[in-house]
Amino acid sequence: MKLLLSLVAFLFVFITTTLASENPKKDICTTLDRAECMDSTQCTLILTKQPNVYSCILSNDSCETGKKQSMLTKKSCENVKNCQYNNANCYCPCAGYGQTLVNDKKAPDCSCDCSGGEPPNCTSIQ
Length: 126
Description:
It is built from three helices and four strands, in the order H-H-E-E-H-E-E. By secondary structure, it is an alpha+beta fold.
């Protein structure tokens, strides 16, 4: 009986510790504005179904993880096997040209001829 209680206690601690360690990482992305998200090596900025509305999500594969979207190049992306670089498609980083759930804090004061599209990204081609 004592062994069973010890096992249950161990499993409880293991599960709650595992869940607690995964959730903060995921929550970090939702607290970032566009520039912060693109400067993160753990998060990826994606366009939602609405123009100029972006979501900062946890990077989910080797093509995204460990790379800053703000510094992404074709070479840095495609150096990873099965990854493809997608150039920005009418993405504008300037203030007032889109946002995540968080208002832009450090977006540059500039203007763009085109906005509302996908930011540059590195995706899996499998």
